[in-house]
């Protein structure tokens, strides 16, 4: 039987491209996001299962995994791709609600989904958390986003230690600049979403005796390394 995968952040950018590519490879996919129309379009295009959900609600994240488990007859692979970076300000201008919103989506939601996966996922499973190259460097005015992604990296590294003895792979992906709606300005010199998603496909389809702990990739123009 083909492998099953739950992908969050699937309505645009890298997440959407990943759904398209895995569905074309005959994976059984459940795609989640907040945009109902985008999910409906994706379902028509790929035949994937879809579920609209606001992952900033931790109970909704729990329900998403339960739904994916039932619809896909188990979840072999979890890809945590949902994220936000909507508040770029110096530290003295940070507002607590902005901080909490980013932590809820970028850090708490992946934690909840990983927790549910670890409670059910059998040996041979794979968890891939999309971090960001921001967690490998520093940049002024990105403290909220960076804190959430550094936190996700630390969580992922610990999860890998715990999952190893159970035969579950854990990968942290660090995509650099990608020309998606995540950015306010078009950047044609950045990676295309389909190119960035292909790197994730390669990590997920690595041989059974190989686990990619980290996948770091950037556009040729990027210099933050």
Q: Would you mind describing this structure in some detail?
A:
With 225 residues, the chain is of the alpha/beta class. The protein has a single domain, classed as 3-Layer(aba) Sandwich (Rossmann fold), CATH 3.40.50.720. The protein is 43% helix and 15% strand. The protein has helices at residues 13-24, 36-46, 58-71, 96-120, 143-164, 193-204, and strands spanning 4-7, 28-33, 49-52, 77-80, 126-130, 169-175, 214-217. The protein has a seven-stranded parallel sheet, sandwiched between helices. The mean pLDDT is 96.
Question: Tags for this entry?
Answer:
225 residues, alpha/beta, Rossmann fold, seven-stranded parallel beta sheet, 6 helices, globular
- Counting copies of identical and different chains, the oligomeric state is single chain
Strand order of the largest sheet: 3-2-1-4-5-6-7
| Gap between N and C termini | 41 Å
As a whole number of angstroms, the C-alpha radius of gyration is 16 Å
In DSSP terms, counting alpha (H) and pi (I) runs of 4 or more, how many helices?
6
